[in-house]
């Protein structure tokens, strides 16, 4: 059986790099969003929750198209980045990160929101009676109790980013060593009728996906996911 070629190894490395950076950013951005959604009684909870969950039902090509327009030279984000001297984000690795953050957002926010809601009021009230401040309560009480949710959110966010295709193809195109991720590399192998190489990569993703689901469904983490 043929070994993986240099282009495939580069795509694997780029995909892992993209998924790692995206997961870290999603945890930083998604935690306050999930906490607000879990605690607020605002009328905006429904609309904001729907926006966060939109990638679950929206075709990736649609999301990728509008992100491409927004980040393009004539879009609002593109004009801002050009004013800041950053150029435009489409067809760059930074653009892939932005698209991946939007596309994988619900896979991080929803497990965190479920974990926060499952904590209930009693631990927070107990912390208040001990005169703990909001930040102290969050880091000393909420984070330890929500740990399963954070682990699940990290796994789901990482795995979902690894499996992206439509969004990354729309935003990043197919530039070797810059934007050609694993899913796009498989597509290229199939187009070139290089089925042996495609089997290696697709089989690896199949095993990876199965192991992710096995961890989530056959371990105590499942309780944290379901809240």
Automatic annotation (TrEMBL):
Pfam families: BPD_transp_1
Domain ABC transmembrane type-1: from-to ranges: 12-218
The protein, known as: Molybdenum transport system permease
Annotated localization: Cell inner membrane; Cell membrane
Keyword Transmembrane: yes
Originating organism: Stutzerimonas xanthomarina DSM 18231
Known function: Part of the binding-protein-dependent transport system for molybdenum; probably responsible for the translocation of the substrate across the membrane.
Family under the similarity heading: Belongs to the binding-protein-dependent transport system permease family. CysTW subfamily.
Keywords from the named record: Cell inner membrane, Cell membrane, Membrane, Molybdenum, Transmembrane, Transmembrane helix, Transport
Transmembrane segments: 12-38, 50-72, 84-103, 198-218
Membrane topology: Multi-pass membrane protein
GO molecular function annotation: molybdate ion transmembrane transporter activity
NCBIfam families tied to this protein: modB_ABC (TIGR02141)
GO cellular component: plasma membrane
